[in-house]
Amino acid sequence: MCIRDRILLFDPLLLALAGFFVWRAFGAEVALLLLVLLGTHYLLSWGHLKGAILRTDFAAMAVLSVALMKLRKPGAAGAALAWASVSRVFPGLMALSLVARLSQRNLSPEERSDIRRFLAWFAGLGATAVLGSVLLDGGLSAWRQWTDKIALHSIEGSHWDIGLSTLFNVEFVDGVPEYFNPLHRFAEEPSLRRAHQLTLWACRIAIVVPALVFARSQPGYRALSFGFVFVFVLTAATYYYYLILLVPLLYFAERAERPFYGFAAGFMFLAGAFGYLLFAGYAPLSDRFVALRGWGQHFQTYYYLSWAIGITALSQLVVASIEARRLDSAANQRTSPK
After folding, report:
1. Which of 77, 99, 116, 288 could be bridged to 69 by S-S, CB 3.0 to 4.6 A?
2. How far apart are CA 253 and CA 96, in angstroms?
3. 40-79: buried (b, 16+ CB within 10 Å) or exposed (e) per residue?
4. Cα(170)–Cα(301) distance, integer angstroms
């Protein structure tokens, strides 16, 4: 096997490694569900990788991080999420849940120690990787290029992004959702641009604050997978980065025998099939439903999928709120006078 062929094995091997540890941590059923979602969801289609190498490492490492956390390997779990974050930055938002969890007063000494070890490895390895890149590159030029590229994407906008902001950067023309870039649209009306940004951030804060509260009641590994909520709410990632959807699947699939969890997991599979329908359309109903006209690789496909993935993030919030209330109720019963 030549070197090129060996390099092409990197992504499949990383995904296989993540799947193996999911099997060890969550069991064969969850690992099989993960494999099926990976093989069937529109946003996880192998064709979206466009022949690139190491396009999947960030998601594989994020999944591996959750599995290792459940296996009580917090240092390795933190290192895995550091890899994911150095690769694509936004997976690092998952760690916000563990920071919130650490503020819970009644944590066992073992779990508190695990979370601290996770965060130490996550921050330490991440900082080491960044510092190493600066030293090897001889300065900050590579990071400046990266920030310039991010700024360019923000200025130009993208029709292929998925996230909460996609639901705001839209206008409807004859019932058809069309993308607009607020930096361009409101270039001569700064007050409207500020109002648009304030509305978006008000919505983000209205979600993030209760999410941080609910995360405090989640066990360490579940808090980590719950962190997908922050990814969806605070970032707008190009559609093929939503391979990260494997993370919230773990959150639901572990307890799929419970009705709401099973529904939420099943909805993720339906959303994956919906993506193909959005792309190709359905002629018999295309005149009646705008979403079924067949939008291909255009904004409309990713606008509707942003709603679908938003429902997954909302489902995590609902589940976490129910679990938080249940734990609060149990704690009150234990402390109430008899």
Report:
1. 77
2. 22
3. ebbbbbeebeeeeeebbbbbbbbbbbbbbbbeebbbbbbb
4. 13
Residues 6+ apart with CB under 8 A from 163: 232, 233, 234, 235, 236, 237, 306
pLDDT by residue (tens digit) across 14-72?
A: 999 999 999 999 999 999 999 999 999 999 886 666 667 778 999 999 999 999 999 99
Q: Name the token pair of 101.
A: 């969890």
> Taking Cα atoms as reference points, which of 329, 209, 321, 314 lies closest to residue 271?
314
**Strands 170-173 vs 237-238: parallel, antiparallel or unpaired:** unpaired
CA dihedral (223, 229, 234, 240) positive or negative: positive
* Cα separation, 147 vs 121, whole angstroms: 25
C-alpha 117/C-alpha 288 separation (Å) is 55
- State the number of CA atoms in the 13 A half-sphere of 334 facing the CB: 6
Written as six digits, the tokens of 51 are 């022949």
pTM, whole model, 2 decimals? 0.93
pLDDT in tens, 91-144: 999 999 999 999 988 899 999 999 999 999 999 999 999 899 888 888 888 888
Of 124, 118, 112, residue with least CA distance to 94: 118
Please give the structure tokens belonging to residue 50: 């466009």
The number of beta carbons lying within 10 Å of the beta carbon of residue 271 is 20
